[in-house]
Amino acid sequence: MRCNLPPLSNEYRNDAGSKSHLVTANPSIIEKRFQNLLWSRKAFVDSVQVYNHSYIYMPAFSMKTGTELSLRAYYTLSDFSANQMVLFANPDFLRHAAKFWKNKGVHAKRLSTGLFLVSAALGLCEEVTLYGFWPFSVDLHGVSISHHYYDNVLPYTGFHAMPEEFLQLWLLHKIGILRMQIGQCKEA
Hints:
With 188 residues, the protein is mainly alpha-helical. It folds into 2 domains: 1-89, no CATH class; 90-188, Alpha-Beta Complex (sialyltransferase cstii, chain A), CATH 3.90.1480. 40% of the residues lie in helices and 9% in strands. It contains 7 helices and 5 strands. It has helices at residues 10-16, 27-33, 41-48, 64-79, 91-103, 113-124, 162-174; strands at residues 22-24, 55-58, 85-88, 129-131, 179-181. Strand 4 (129-131), helix 7 (162-174) and strand 5 form a beta-alpha-beta unit. The longest helix has 16 residues, at 64-79. The chain is globular and about 45 Å long. Pathway: Protein modification; protein glycosylation. Belongs to the glycosyltransferase 29 family. Pfam families: Glyco_transf_29. It is found in: Golgi apparatus membrane.
C-alpha cells in the first residue's frame, strides 16, 4: 500500500521498491498534479501505469470538494480502459477512524491519508509494517531529511497533526500491534 501516488521510478526503486496493490490518491493531488483532470487525463492515466493492476483508493464522499475529482479520476481510468480501478473509501469508515484517533489524542483538522490507510490495513492485514511515517525534518542521527522520499512538500500547516499520529503509531509498535521501520533498513 502506498500513499498519494508516489513515484516508483528507477531512481527510487532500491529504497522504495516497486510493488503495490493499493495506492491512495487525494483529490488535492488530482487538482494540483493533473489540473483537475480537465486538460491532462492522458497524463494521469500514463502516470498511474507504474502501479500495474493496483487499486486507486480515493475519499470520494468524505468531503464535498473531493467528490467531483474522485469521480473524474474513476471515469478517466474507465474511459482509457486502464489496468487500475478506483475504490472509494466508505465515508462511515473515515468518520469512525477519525473519531477513534481523536479519542486517542490525535487532534487534527483532518487525519493524514497515511493514518487512514494504516487504520484500514490494521483491519485487513495479519501483519502491518510501516515505512516513511517519520514526521520530523531530521532523522535519528540528526541528519536533515525530506518530508517524502521524492520531495520535501510539507503538509498544510495546522491541517494534520503528524507528530501526534506518529506517537500513536509508535505506541502500537511498542505493544506489537504493528511494526514501524524508522531507521535504515537492513539489507536482506
